[in-house]
Specification:
mainly alpha
Length: 108
């Protein structure tokens, strides 16, 4: 008689196989749609504090796992993307806002 316990799949293995099967059977649009639905459901069930909490936890985890060079790289990429998508007026506006905020800080 065969030992069925040795043929039992772990939860991790079952999840991996299920994920691989889903990936074979669905396209990018499928994942976008379920992601959108999940995001909407989460937004209905949670408040601003929830998002602040998970954002802080994510930031702390990222900081623990990455060094200064990582932040320099992503900052550079973000700066390049921003400059491609915005014009001179955008930079003038954010510069003005920053100057006003700095002025308020100095006057407090």
């Amino acid at each position: 008689m065969a030992d069925n316990k040795s043929k039992t799949m772990s939860t991790e293995e079952a999840g991996r196989k299920g994920g691989e099967a889903t990936a074979r059977n669905h396209d990018k649009e499928f994942y976008e749609e379920i992601g959108q639905k999940g995001g909407e459901a989460t937004a209905k069930n949670h408040d601003k504090d929830f998002y602040q909490d998970i954002g802080q936890k994510g930031g702390e985890a990222t900081a623990e796992n990455h060094d200064k060079e990582f932040y320099q790289r992503i900052g550079e990429k973000g700066g390049e993307a921003t400059s491609k998508n915005h014009d001179k007026e955008f930079y003038q506006e954010i510069g003005e806002k920053g100057g006003e905020a700095r002025s308020r800080q100095n006057n407090d």
